[in-house]
UniProtKB/TrEMBL annotation, chains A, B:
InterPro entries: HTH_HxlR, WH-like_DNA-bd_sf, WH_DNA-bd_sf
Entry keyword annotation includes Cell membrane: no
SUPFAM superfamilies noted in UniProt: Winged helix' DNA-binding domain
The keyword Magnesium belongs to this UniProt entry's keyword annotation: no
Gene3D superfamilies: Winged helix-like DNA-binding domain superfamily/Winged helix DNA-binding domain (1.10.10.10)
Keywords: DNA-binding, Transcription, Transcription regulation
Protein name: Helix-turn-helix transcriptional regulator
Segments forming domain HTH hxlR-type: 18-116
Pfam families: HxlR (PF01638)
PROSITE patterns assigned: HTH_HXLR
Amino acid sequence: MIETPSPFYEFNGKTYQCPIELSIALFAGRWKPTIIYKLLDGKKRYGELKKLIEGINHKVLAEQLRDLEASGIIARHVFPTNPPKVEYELTPLGEGLRPAIDHLQQWGLQFQAEHSKTKPVANHCPELAQEQK
Amino acid sequence: MIETPSPFYEFNGKTYQCPIELSIALFAGRWKPTIIYKLLDGKKRYGELKKLIEGINHKVLAEQLRDLEASGIIARHVFPTNPPKVEYELTPLGEGLRPAIDHLQQWGLQFQAEHSKTKPVANHCPELAQEQK
DNA sequence: CAGTATCCTGATAGATACTG
DNA sequence: CAGTATCTATCAGGATACTG
């Protein structure tokens, strides 16, 4: 495996033992991957994201967006209109996550496939969409 | 009326909206990435992992290992000797994470570099190395 | 429309002690 | 050596209401 040049990686007052830990800490979480995933498709307004990400809480979406912005992964553009309009888009840094995300997606699909073999997925149950209550 | 634009991904009773969410859920967490990272280097005994991952709690390591095993990412080999010896290694599925992890690592390094430019990292503080205790 | 401020709760991490 | 069992502490996530 690749040797880590320096043993510790610091960001925002936290210390990480390897770059992966840092990466994961920055874009993991209950919703961040999904947000980034949606933004890979192009910039989106707050409300669009809210609608696209079914089940996410209003406050939580705002929080996660602020986190991602603080990490420099997304950029926030405010249009001082009335009513207000705010757009979010990936920064170049955020775009840099694309290959990693692509691989994660492929891995997720592979994982799904593996498990479908032994234990078929219950896709017959549309109520699952409501699971996050 | 819930639109179901993307299929669901289910595992272990939880539903995910996209494969990435699933992937992250499976190998994110405070320590899982680090564990996997260490195992990419080859199989390790419990005690080795404990030593390699400075700061991890005894119980937590055991838990995370069990989670990863349940997900099929790592395999556990028990040698019924005295004292007991247990080895952990990545399964083929776990190995499949390597490209994703490689990209995450690169991204983490890039991130680190970006932030070093504007806001120099406080590497002057050796106590940081001891932070996890 | 987008964003805060409270309050609450469940999942996770950690400290510690005990077991084969 | 490796693994449980408790107990506690913490914190991210969520429900809800209010604001420009």
